[in-house]
Amino acid sequence: MTGATDVRVETLIAEAVDRWRPRMLDLSHALHADPELSGEEHRAAKRVRAMLAEAGFRFDVPQPAAPTALRAEAGEGELVAVFCIEYDALPGIGHACGHNVNAAATLGAALALASAAGPLGLTVRVLGTPAEESHGGKVDLLEEGMFDGAAMAFMVHASGEDAVGNSSLALGCWDLTFHGRAAHAATAPEDGVNALSALVVAQTAVGLLRQQLPRDVVVSQVVTDGGSAPNVIPDRASARLEVRAPRRDQLDAAWAAVRRCFEAGAHATGCTLDIERSGNVFADLRQDGFLAGAYAETMERRGRSVPLRGDAIASTDMGNVSHRVPSIHPMVGYDVGGAAHHTAEFALAGAGSSADLAVVDAAYGLAAAAARAAQDPTERRRLLESVARHP
């Protein structure tokens, strides 16, 4: 790692993290106790907005279209650092992905960095990014221009262990519906066009396709409509299908092959086929090497061991951001008792003392990583050049 964070700047950041610590933890606990589903995070967004206003962030900037998204800025520097705040929960099990921790830690980092925005020549931009667990709100914000001018982007994610540098899987989800013609299955089956048969043909073809797919490409599906009575030829059958792959180009190639399987089902049976994408396509996550290293070094000084490598895990709309803006999306670890994400046990751990420590540590780690990049002449130039390529 080249250079180090200036002592004065490091002191400003550390003091700000300590000053905001009670409010950060209050936010984490409040979100944990009051979970809201994707796209419905009204109270969460209001809480985040209130803390930003208290810290002097300005809101007289273009705002996102989604009612639970937000944008606020502090500082006037040419180097723009974006902090992405997730706050949606899961149906039935609350914050079982730890987004209360994500939100509190990432917001804390933004507030801390804003205290040093002047000497660092930074603009700190906070984006409230709803619906990560469903359609991927960050993709919408990218398309709306909310990341325009950004030189680097940050967020942290709750986990049972620390890591940075690992990727995520590209993900696409589609709803596929076959339309046929109903008929009595006993008295006039020849008059029917069986939509369920088309779906069975498609599923069989997908099963055979797996032999030609790369080992790390995953295709999963569920039948959402297969008819209502055995004595009626189904005139409608539908499935929801997901494709995951290590890279976006692999995802696109796999989806093209899967789509041909469904088109074959329609052709074989005489049905028609409707295809509708469900949510945004998530790209694979590309973590910036310098920012990841700076984060890891900072966290190690706080007593954490943060590996710089890891397997591709799950999927996130932060991947799309990372294809446009140099980004990191580290995992911050706390005691989850061995529980996996998206379980009630993981949700329960998100308001404990170990999670609270993770919030504070990660807030400092993200802010210090951004400061390190802003102060390193080579990295600052690289980041500004990336903005010029993708304004």
UniProtKB/TrEMBL annotation:
One of its GO terms (cellular component) is cytoplasm. SUPFAM superfamilies: Bacterial exopeptidase dimerisation domain (SSF55031), Zn-dependent exopeptidases (SSF53187). Residues 174-265 form the Peptidase M20 dimerisation domain. The keyword Hydrolase applies. One of its GO terms (biological process) is folic acid catabolic process. The keyword Protein biosynthesis does not apply. Keywords: Hydrolase. InterPro entries: Amidohydrolase, Bact_exopeptidase_dim_dom, Peptidase_M20, Peptidase_M20/M20A_hydrolases, Peptidase_M20_dimer, Xaa-Arg_dipeptidase. Pfam families: M20_dimer, Peptidase_M20. One of its GO terms (molecular function) is dipeptidase activity. NCBIfam families: amidohydrolases. Belongs to the peptidase M20A family. This is Peptidase M20 domain-containing protein 2. The lineage of its organism: Bacteria, Bacillati, Actinomycetota, Actinomycetes, Micrococcales.
